[in-house]
Amino acid sequence: MDPTLIVLLASTAAAGLAALGPLPLLGRERTPTVAIGWANALAAGLMLGAAYLLMSAGRAYLPLEGAAGAALGIFFVWLTHLAAGTEELDLNRLDESSSVYGYRVMLVNALHSASEGVAIGAAMSVGVPFGIVLVVAIGVHNVPEATILCAVLRARGVRGGAAAALGVLTNVTQVLLAVVTFALLEAVPGLLPVTIGFAFGSLVYLVLFELLPECYRQAGRTTIALVTLVAMGIVVLLGGLAQ
Amino acid sequence: MSLLGRTFGVFLYGLGTALATGLGAIPFAFVRKISPQVVAVANAIAAGLMLGASFGLVAEGRGHGEWQTIGGAVLGVVFILLTQRFLSERDVAFGDFRGADARQMLLMVIVMTVHSFAEGVAVGVAFGGGQTLGAVITIAIAVHNVPEGVAISAVLRPRGVSVAKCAGWSIFSSLPQPLMAVPAFLFVEAFRPALPFGIGFAAGAMVFMVLDELLPEAYEEGRRGAVALLVSLTLIGMVLFQRYL
């Protein structure tokens, strides 16, 4: 199969997993705050694991370029938040029914997915088995992320199928960036170290800026630490099996 | 050189790496004002250093054994959980300090001290593999120890511990290195299989300390953008540092 087609199919499948997001909310009138904390920690752990795998793959390449790329990745996420005016936005408000809030959270999610797309594209350039591991980690990560989005959207009356569809839609940037990144790296392989660094830096920064800050208040510290660690450990282990 | 002479040499190398840790306290000579914001910044720096060090450790440990590293990490987390429980049931004092601050400072010293055991084994096993390799790894570990001293001092100093005592506790936390290096050198074959466990243990304990203690406190006192930026930049710096040295 054409490798670009593999990237397209795999990243589409990862984005599609977001459709499972509303499932944990079915049959509940209110979303328990603890559940949002768990979802954040789960998403954070899977993403940290993915960042670790990118770092350990990047060790084989030029470290200075990787570090420059990582700084660029952090700068990119920081800049998008600044441009979107979302640097102080609480992403987990379940009682906020204004439509502006809903759109802003969706914008943040779409930008968040863009970095994940770069990560998938770069990992696929390293090798298809490695790329698949990253796709699995990020795809599974999309589920709790979509759960949180659906819980937020529910306050505005968006439910069921529509919420699931919006969860998938905010991940379209992931597919787009995965394919574009992969194609770019096929054409200019010399950009691989910088791109891996970019993906590593932006993933780490997203975890620390978007996922972890809220969740310590939503569930206890130790719960958050353990959920994050277990999710991270599973991804690290999965990465070892692929090598 | 006689075996005794070489063994003593390994001990001295290990002691040298421990003393290097004390250098980590130096930057904190300039920290005078003690405020919650300083604690947040220092916590974020310590978190980044420890996460970066753990990433490097896991990558190294997996070269020795995938499952052993993960198993060691699980044990490391359980160990810190039990230590936390033990400390929370008691009225602990750390120097002149009591209460929550004392507990956290003590936990930090414990985490960094147990993590040094694995590094000591690494020094000893490396010397068992030949003197040149040993010297290279010793210098590498000595240099790695400086940011570890920074991490410890970052937790102790903003809570009011003097710079000299920060250096003292930093060196203390690395004392297991000379102590473990000697038996690991003498019984390389017996210690080699334990290395990935020890490395995993160290990484698990440090990541748990970061996620359970340092980060939540940093978020409470500091702005999330500043915390995220500091942690991620320090993490990248640490990964780069380890890659070059």
Question: What this model shows, in words?
Answer:
The complex is a heterodimer of chains A (243) and B (245). Chain A has 243 residues and is an all-alpha fold. Chain A is built from nine helices and no strands. Helices cover 79% and strands 0% of the residues of chain A. Chain B is mostly helical and 245 residues long. Chain B is built from ten helices and two strands, in the order αααββααααααα. A two-stranded antiparallel sheet of chain B has the order 1-2. Classes of the chains: A mainly alpha (243), B mainly alpha (245). The interface between A and B is large, with 36 and 36 residues.
What would the keywords be for this entry?
heterodimer, A: 243 residues, mainly alpha, 79% helix, B: 245 residues, two-stranded antiparallel ribbon, 10 helices, globular
Q: Report the portion of residues of chain A in β strands.
A: under 5%
Structure annotation, total helices of chain B: 10
Work out the radius of gyration of chain A: 17 Å
CA-based gyration radius of chain B: 17 Å
Low-confidence stretches of chain A: none
What is the number of beta strands of chain A?
A: 0
Distance between the ends of chain A: 21 Å
**Average pLDDT taken over every residue of chain A:** 92
The level of helicity of chain A is over 70%
Indicate the structural class of chain A: mainly alpha
Main sheet characteristics of chain A: none
Which sequence of strands runs across the widest sheet of chain B? 1-2
- What string, H for helix and E for strand, traces the elements of chain B in order? HHHEEHHHHHHH
β-strand amount of chain B: under 5%
- Residue-averaged pLDDT of chain B, rounded? 86
Fraction of residues in H or I helices of chain B:
over 70%
What are the low-pLDDT stretches of chain B, counting only 5+ consecutive residues below 50? none
The total of helices of chain A stands at 9
Number of strands of chain B: 2
Shape of chain B: globular
